[in-house]
Amino acid sequence: MATVIVPAGLNMGQDFGPGDPAERPSEFWQIHLGTVAADLTRDEVTVWGAAFVDVQRHANHEMSRSTLAQLVKENAAGVDDPDTVVAGLVERGLFVEYDPENGSAENVFRDHQLFPLVQGMGNSPEDPTGYELGIGGQTLVTVNADVYAVWSYALTCRSLWDACAELAQGLDEDLEPGEEPIGLTAEAVAAQVAAALPVLVVSGCCFLDPLNYEL
Question: What is the DSSP code (8-state) at residue 156?
């Protein structure tokens, strides 16, 4: 499977700077990125924002660095060199990359926290294995029970990897007498989260925040 690209950080909107409008610096946009307020130019925020447009490609794990650059070339006039802009945003930590199937998400998960942005809406009698995330009664994404659990409490853990590990450990600790251990590993939980993460982020259900600070 190809390496996917996923936005990191939380959009804080446009900022024209303080003071007299005539003396303000050129317009820029800010992305909350751990302890950093990353300043993005118009080209950079256009490319970063383009990663949120095609949810289905993310769901299919088809959004890679090159796919994103091509999407910008086809739909965002005025960005001269999308490939270079994407590469620069990856270097600054505004995108993360990993292969959902080969375990390479572990390093990303160890270096980031996950924060939920919408409401958990539970499951239904018609689909008891599917747990819905959304807002205002509108479902945005449906995930399995393990991903739902990690999404709901990952903000209490030092990292997204720790959240996966805690779920795996907790499932065996909470067994009733006579029940067999499930034997789920942190790697197995992380694989489920890694598969769902691109669509969770670009649907606005959560954001990734880098651990560029000491907890």
Answer: G
